Amino acid sequence: MSDMLERLTRERIVAIFRGVEDRYADDAARALIDGGIGMMEITMNTAGATGLISRWREKFGGEAAIGAGTVLDLDMAKEAVAAGAQYLISPNLDEAVVVYGNEQGVPVWPGCMTPTEIVRAWKAGAEAVKIFPMASLGVKYLAEIRAPLDRIPMIATGGVDLDNIADYFKAGACAVGMGSKLVNLTWAREGKFDLLTARAKQFAEAARGL
């Protein structure tokens, strides 16, 4: 198990920042860190994503792991790694990205839906996979595929909330990826960073208490 995978299984939540404006980004990240969230994912379809990754590595690197999300292909992977991303997450499986990440010492957790994709990712060198779209597939689907594929750590992304987060972990998720339910950009734009911190504390306590 790599250090980053060990951190993922300990932290249990990846906060997904998609479309956050630069002027709110640092304060929003600070708010989540203060609330106990230690893994930040900046999606590559966010304006200025690579600049944010570099800046957050410098500002928050001692407190949180900073990764890149929505890494669709090898070119994006190279951009993210050059910016300092400590891990790469994608909605799809591209074996070339997995191989490149391993060569660079940067874990890649690719998006998979079917058992075939999950095993392909694992054979390509992925230590963990992201099950996506979890909101549509449902927690029962996760439990079913975990039964024969229990050796492969799975990150459940989509549909996670306070009232069901325990169900995802009971079904076998090693961690969950969370976007708007955790990273509320409306609150950030309104300067309500205290609400972001309070929400983060709720989720962090719920995840670690399971």
TrEMBL record:
<dbReference type="InterPro" id="IPR013785">
    <property type="entry name" value="Aldolase_TIM"/>
</dbReference>
<comment type="subunit">
    <text>Homotrimer.</text>
</comment>
<keyword id="KW-0456">Lyase</keyword>
<dbReference type="InterPro" id="IPR000887">
    <property type="entry name" value="Aldlse_KDPG_KHG"/>
</dbReference>
<keyword id="KW-0119">Carbohydrate metabolism</keyword>
<comment type="pathway">
    <text>Carbohydrate acid metabolism.</text>
</comment>
<dbReference type="Pfam" id="PF01081">
    <property type="entry name" value="Aldolase"/>
</dbReference>
<protein>
    <submittedName>
        <fullName>Bifunctional 4-hydroxy-2-oxoglutarate aldolase/2-dehydro-3-deoxy-phosphogluconate aldolase</fullName>
    </submittedName>
</protein>
<comment type="similarity">
    <text>Belongs to the KHG/KDPG aldolase family.</text>
</comment>
